[in-house]
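Final report, results section. Input specification for complex C-07:
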Amino acid sequence: MMRLRLTPAQVFWWIVFILGVLYFFLPLLATFLFSMRSQPLFSAYTDTLTRGDFWSSLGYSFVIGVITIVISVTLVMPTAFWVRLRVPRARPFVEFVTLLPFVIPPVVIVFGLLSIYANKPISLTTVPYGSDLLLVGAYTMLSLPYMYRSIDAGLRAIDINTLTEAAQSMGAGWTRILVQIILPNLRVSILSGAFLTLAIVVGEFTIAAYLARPAFGPFIALIGRNEAYTPAAVSIVSFGLTWLAMGLIAFLGRGSRTRVRVAGAH
Amino acid sequence: MGFLDLTDVRKEFTGGTVAVEDFNLQAEKGEFVSFLGPSGCGKTTTLRMIAGFERPTSGTITIQGADVTDRAPNQRNVGMVFQSYALFPNMTVAGNIGFGLRIRKRPADQIKKRVGELLELINLSGRGDRYPWQLSGGQQQRVALARALAIEPQVLLLDEPLSALDAKIRVQLREQIRAIQRQLGITTIYVTHDQEEALSLSDRIVVMSEGRIEQIGTPAEIYNFPATTFVAKFVGSLNVVTAKTVDGAAGTVTVDDLPIRTFKPFQAAAGTEVVLALRPEVVTIVRDGDAASVRTANRLHATVDEVTFLGSVVRTRVKLPGGTTLNFDTFNDPHLVVPALGSPVTIGFPAEGCLVLAD
Amino acid sequence: MTAPAQTLIQGAPKARPGRRRWATLLGLVPFFLAAFLFMLLPMAFLVAGSFQDVNGNLTTQNYADLSQNFIVDAYITSIRVSLATAVAGGVFGFLLAYAVILGGLPHFLRTALMTFSGVASNFAGIPLALAFIFTLGHVGFLTLFLRDTLGIDIWAHGFNLYSEIGLDFTYMYFQFPLMVLIMAPAIDGLRQDWREASANLGATSGQYWRHIALPILTPTLLGTMILLFGNSFGAQATAYALTAGQVNLVTLVISDQMSGDVLHNVGLGYALAVGMVAIMAVAITLYTILQRRSERWLR
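Structure output:
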């Protein structure tokens, strides 16, 4: 291929790409510039990083995220494994369930959850950690599409039938098989699903707000309504952190057979 | 000037890798030429240059006198059969075969007729409305062949078309391909790393290694008179023995101090070491009491190392005093007496079976 | 000799296979139980609740209320916004993905776009709204740049970020990336040798696209656009933050009903939600059909 000669087709694709870059970066640039208007310079950032509720809400979301990831993996991995190994007929049903979070908008999910669990006879919202439980439950559902797809793709790449038979012939039970043999081979898939789940949890607003949880999403909403430059700084910081995390997945997942898929929410 | 000419073709990739060098070939009309060689020898790259998917760094390619070196691949009228078949998944078998004709805007009824003819040629009449994913590997390959032939190309190119198939299907299909090619009289270039395919199908073989042509010749020439060590080792199995020159012009050497007469005179000073190539099928065990024969004019002493029964053939491995091993095959015979392991034997072979390798 | 052979042929006694099947299904219970508790049961309650009025009595009034003008308008607007962002997001997202994969651009740009898309597809709600206000608001940085440097006052020319069009434009920020991420593997699936085979048979680039590439990609393209539709349809936080009620969307109406205002009607909210789910169910069914088709071809 000649170095400097571009075909008309290539020129077209470069234009497409540059338009895309402009679209994505101008709003980020504008946010950054706005955050720099605070007096003194960078005070929006120092304010952000020193205020208690930034860290507490981020910490809260992070903890909820981790709990969600653990529950999600514990739920999805054995299920995906079982479907693939023993009950392939159940696959359409399982996939339908994983599509439900796409079908049901978050506002509807939280609405539905509250309608059961916030009214008599089960009033979880008044029980300590009850609302948190609901939040984790809802987020676990939201993570299903990504976690299932990721883990399923990972399972497809390894021959679980042979691995299971080999393990069984050496006397291993199901727990041991799952934890010591299957799980290590799904490292990348689980990481990918985990980071995505974390991104969703940290960025989520609707469910956290309606469940009145001190999460990061409502925190951003609160400062966005009341303050000037700090929201801009917070946006930039959270965007940067998430990009770092995604870069980390890509880095950790390079060279692996399963394609690391990252997709998003509202 | 042949039907398909490649003259001084060279392909260098960015980064400096030279994939093909000094490639010269003149293929006649209707000739079946194979490019044979190990992976990475440049045979596929050369084929792709003929097809137009790669541009030669220097050199020319002409078809029927017209220079096509710089022509776009969609304007060459050469038909290519890909290793992976490359059938379009969204079209039926008939759709695939007729694609080239539809592009050329032939009338629909003409296309239908031609597709029907080709389906019959490849023995898939009635399967025209199937989709590629509904066919077996062998069937898909036949469709790929029909698709390439549909446009009545000047040259047919096949890139290791049978490598993904089972051994039995491979043999069946390659005979079919050869029969169709003969029937249509199409100049064909066939790339393969399987020497049995190349030997059984070709009018001529181009043996390649590391981007260069090692030898061009008929299958018999390649097999019986390999020009280089590479060709000798790559095509057919070969025994290699070191020998000491006595007289190059007379073609005499010694192996283990026994006199050996080679097939042709060769260039080497007396006393220098040369490499002798021995085809296993010309070697036999000489028994006491056997009449003297041209077939066993050369004699060597050895000990039996291993005897393997392969069904129709018995493979014997013997060890020469110097440590070199020789393999040779004999046809199975109910009355065959198999020598005991470790027993001393005399092996014999004719002068014609014994060649000094050039390098 | 025949008797034991016959037993072997008939196989194990009938009782055992049945019991084994139940046992294997047991392994799926936790998953479906969780889904039941956190999605299906709430859905059922929603449906039930939609048939109740403020006092808990059975009624179909909520569904009758759906025919109110502003609600019908909300559905129409939501569908319109979702369709617009699905199609526009789908087309440009596809072009963007193609550009970095097969468009001849340097390879590192592909990785950069993929990781960026992973982030951007989750960038929504208030931060996104603010970002666009900072860019294209009345005193947004781009607005000012265009006005002061190039002499073009977009607001004076009728541009309004806080309108439906502005919302569409803002939604693209997570729609483009979603399209890019899901289409990338499909574009990778367009084998190089199909392209070469088509050229070998005489086809131009355009003919290749028309006869081969687009037909192969279309099910995935359409299917992903349906996902984009769903993504947009369910979005709420961004719309609220950006337009604060100026654009009438179903999700906003639902959250109004929930937010404890004096005149709120929970049953109506439920009915609205059921309406949304019904629309999405149709979309997902279409999506599944398209997925099956493309899977078959790209095997």
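Chain C has 14 helices and no strands. The two ends of chain C are 47 Å apart (CA to CA). This concludes the modelling results for the funded period.
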